[in-house]
Amino acid sequence: MRWSADGLIAVTGASGRLGSRLAFRLAAEGAHQRLVVRDPTRVPRLGDGRPLPECEVAVADGYEDVAGMRAAFDGVPTAFLVSARESADRVAVHTAAIDAAVAAGVERLVYVSFVGAAPDATFTFARHHWATEQHLRRSGLRWTILRDNLYHQALASFVGTDDVIRGPAGDGLVASVAHDDVADVATAVLLDEDPHRHDGVTYDVTGPIALSLTQVAALLTLATGRQIRYHAETVEEAYASRAGLGASDVELEGWVTSYTAIAAGELEHVSHDVSRLVGRPARSFEQWIDDYPLEWQHLVHGGRAGPG
User: Fold this and answer.
1) Which of 9, 44, 156, 194 could join 296 via S-S bond, C-beta 3.0 to 4.6 A?
2) Percentage of the residues of the chain whose pLDDT score is greater than 70
3) Collapsing DSSP states into helix, strand and coil, what is residue 48?
4) Residue 246: per-residue pLDDT
5) For residues 114 and 94, is the Cβ–Cβ distance under 8 A?
6) pTM value?
C-alpha cells in the first residue's frame, strides 16, 4: 500500500472523467480518500457495485456551496481540486473552493489548471486558470499545479454530425493528453513519499506529440471508416456556426478561443512531465484511439455536434 504521507485526501469532482479515474487509482494504492460529489448516487464504485475501499463520501452542491465545501474539507490535510464548469463566475467559484480549504484547515492543495495559463492567454479559460493560480499562491496553502492540455476525448468530440471538425485553428498544433495520464500524474504527486518534493511546482501535462486538427481528422478517419475532415473557419464563421447552440457568451468565447489558441501556437508545447513523474511515456492521440474505442464509437455511426 502507498498511503499519502499527508493522510486523508479529498478528491473533488470524483464523479467526473478525471476525478473518478483518480479515485480508482488512489483506492488501488490503499490511500484513504474522501470523494466530494454533487450527487452521491454517482460516486465511483467497484465493478460489483461495492464502494471503493478506504473511501468516505462528502456531498457539496458545487464549489459555491461554502458550507458544504468546508464540511467536505474538514479534517483533510490534502485536497485535489479539479476545475469547475465553464461559467462567467468561474474564477469566483474556484477561489471560493480554495478559501473553503483554507478555512477547513487543509494544508496542501493540488490544482488542475491549463497549459499556457497567463493573464494574456488567447484561450479565455486559460486566463481564468491563471487568476485561480494567483489566488492559490496567495492562500498560504502548500500547492502543486497540474497544467493539462486539451484532452484527447475533447478532440474527438469536436467532430460534428457531418463528420467535420470546424474551428479557427489554422495549421496550429495541439499536444492533447489522455485523462488517464493526468490521473496518473496526480496519483504520483499525491502519494509521493516526500510530498514536499512537489510544493510550489507547476507541471505541464501533455501528450507526447503535437498534432494539427487535419492530422486528428485523418487518424479518426482511419479508426472509424468515415471520411472525417477539418475545415478551418474564420473567427467570424466560428461564432456564427455555434450561435444556435444556446450557449452563454462566456462558453461561446471559450469554445472559439480554444481553436484560436491552437492557431497561435499556445497549445503545441510538448512536455515530458508525464514520463518523468509516472515512469512511462504519455499516450499519444493515436494510442488513445486504440486503447479507448468506447470514447469515439459514436463517430462510427455519424458524429455528434460537440460544443467546441
Assistant:
1) 156
2) 96
3) coil
4) 85
5) no
6) 0.94
